[in-house]
């Protein structure tokens, strides 16, 4: 997408008339079931006006169903769906001022780029002058003015995605819904397009809900995100919050890679917590207020938060140490990921790579140091 000055981008956005009024989206106790199968279970979300909000979860978690519900393609059995404070649950899709970009883009193959973008305005019986102005502005916004007379099969995947975006924003939606729009692109183009997508959303200011199963896409674009599993919202927050402070093991594993060690509480004092880690032995951590109560819990920590030393190296007392054996390694350029056996557990350990640095060989005995500040204790 060709770069433009901020003033030019703002002028184009104003000509598209998108985002003039930012609206919030609220789901209140939304429930949807197909027969005895509950797909959405008491979903509560409050998406702020102008926010880029991601719905993240595995296949079957309910994220795409929730997006289709907001679009009006299906309707919940109970609960409220509010746009700008108004419950739109009873409105059909064509009465909702909502735009949606599908995974397949759904472009008309026999129409030109111009006619694809103009389609929604033609259906709304807009005047020729309005269509000309708005379609021209939308194509300029996505950098496709020179491709107006081409057919979709004459465009690259990234260009087709931009046509789908232009076709959606040209109808001036209050809310923009994106259903895994980057999944058909290769990795390099996906990174480029998500950056362009976020930049466009910031220029337009339109409230955007982005469905993805790709944690990297969600974390690099969203102001906040919700993680769903089996129709239940597990946690809502900024990407860094969900990464650093997951509320349970599912979120911890889904947002990034997490090591989890099951443990039994052996002793609680006013300052420390002594844990008997299954198959490892006692580890002692400073007592934190948010430590879950009960006899069983999970010790969680990210692969990059571990310090690696030779087994016979002097141990830094600021860390909690475990003995391990290297089983395998994966050189990933910026870092090497080791798979380390600690008791009965296999841990992922990331070590930053520097030129000339050797690798720990398979079978090497090492010490793993945990900084207590990087450990999170989760319910078992």
Entry summary:
With 380 residues, this protein is of the alpha+beta class. It has helices at 6-16, 63-71, 113-123, 128-141, 157-169, 187-204, 215-221, 239-244, 249-254, and strands spanning 25-34, 37-47, 52-56, 78-83, 86-87, 98-101, 175-179, 207-212, 224-229, 232-237, 259-268, 272-277, 281-286, 296-301, 306-310, 320-331, 335-342, 345-352, 365-370, 376-379.
Lay out the secondary structure.
Elements: H1 6-16, E1 25-34, E2 37-47, E3 52-56, H2 63-71, E4 78-83, E5 86-87, E6 98-101, H3 113-123, H4 128-141, H5 157-169, E7 175-179, H6 187-204, E8 207-212, H7 215-221, E9 224-229, E10 232-237, H8 239-244, H9 249-254, E11 259-268, E12 272-277, E13 281-286, E14 296-301, E15 306-310, E16 320-331, E17 335-342, E18 345-352, E19 365-370, E20 376-379
Parallel strand pairs: 3-8, 3-9, 6-7, 7-8
Antiparallel strand pairs: 1-2, 1-4, 4-5, 9-10, 11-12, 11-14, 12-13, 14-20, 15-19, 16-17, 16-19, 17-18
Helix pairs in contact: 1-4, 3-4, 3-5, 4-5
Structure description:
With 380 residues, this protein is of the alpha+beta class. The chain folds into two domains: 6-249, Rossmann fold; 257-379, OB fold (Dihydrolipoamide Acetyltransferase, E2P), CATH 2.40.50.140. It has nine helices and 20 strands. The protein has helices spanning 6-16, 63-71, 113-123, 128-141, 157-169, 187-204, 215-221, 239-244, 249-254; strands at 25-34, 37-47, 52-56, 78-83, 86-87, 98-101, 175-179, 207-212, 224-229, 232-237, 259-268, 272-277, 281-286, 296-301, 306-310, 320-331, 335-342, 345-352, 365-370, 376-379. A six-stranded mixed sheet has the order 6-7-8-3-9-10, with helices on both faces. A five-stranded antiparallel sheet has the order 13-12-11-14-20. It has a five-stranded antiparallel sheet with strand order 15-19-16-17-18, with no helix packed on it. A hairpin with a 2-residue loop joins strand 17 and strand 18 (345-352). Helix 1 (6-16) runs antiparallel to helix 4 and helix 3 runs parallel beside helix 5. It is elongated, with a radius of gyration of 25 Å. It starts with 5 loop residues before the first helix and ends with a strand. The model is unreliable at 1-5 (pLDDT under 50).
């Amino acid at each position: 997408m060709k770069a433009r000055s901020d003033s030019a981008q703002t002028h184009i956005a104003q000509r598209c008339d998108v985002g003039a009024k930012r609206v919030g989206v609220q789901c209140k106790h939304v429930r949807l079931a197909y027969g005895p199968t509950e797909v959405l279970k008491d979903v509560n979300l409050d998406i702020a006006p102008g926010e880029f909000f991601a719905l993240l979860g595995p296949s079957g978690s309910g994220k795409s169903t929730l997006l289709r519900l907001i679009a009006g393609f299906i309707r919940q059995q109970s609960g409220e769906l509010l746009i700008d404070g108004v419950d739109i649950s009873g409105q059909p899709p064509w009465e909702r001022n909502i735009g949606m970009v599908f995974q397949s883009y759904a472009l008309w193959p026999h129409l030109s780029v111009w006619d694809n973008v103009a389609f929604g305005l033609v259906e709304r019986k807009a005047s020729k002058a309005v269509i000309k102005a708005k379609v021209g502005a939308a194509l300029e916004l996505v950098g496709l003015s020179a491709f107006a007379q081409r057919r979709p099969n004459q465009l690259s995947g990234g260009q087709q995605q931009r046509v789908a975006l232009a076709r959606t924003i040209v109808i001036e939606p209050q809310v923009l819904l994106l259903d895994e729009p980057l999944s058909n692109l290769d990795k390099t183009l996906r990174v480029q397009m998500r950056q362009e997508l976020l930049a466009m959303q910031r220029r337009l200011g339109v409230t955007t809900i982005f469905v993805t199963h790709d944690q990297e896409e969600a974390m690099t674009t969203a102001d906040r995100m919700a993680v769903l599993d089996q129709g239940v919202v597990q946690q809502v927050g900024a990407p860094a919050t969900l990464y650093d402070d997951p509320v349970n093991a599912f979120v911890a594993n889904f947002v990034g890679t997490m090591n989890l060690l099951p443990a039994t509480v052996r002793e609680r004092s006013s300052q420390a917590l002594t844990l008997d880690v299954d198959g490892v032995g006692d580890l002692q951590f400073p007592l934190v207020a948010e430590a879950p109560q009960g006899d069983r819990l999970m010790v969680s920590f990210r692969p990059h938060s571990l310090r690696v030393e030779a087994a016979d190296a002097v141990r830094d007392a600021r860390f909690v140490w475990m003995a391990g054996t290297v089983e395998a390694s994966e050189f990933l350029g910026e870092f090497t990921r080791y798979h380390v056996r600690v008791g009965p557990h296999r841990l992922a350990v990331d070590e930053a790579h520097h030129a000339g640095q050797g690798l720990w060989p398979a079978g090497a005995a090492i010490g793993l140091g945990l900084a207590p500040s990087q450990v999170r204790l989760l319910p078992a």
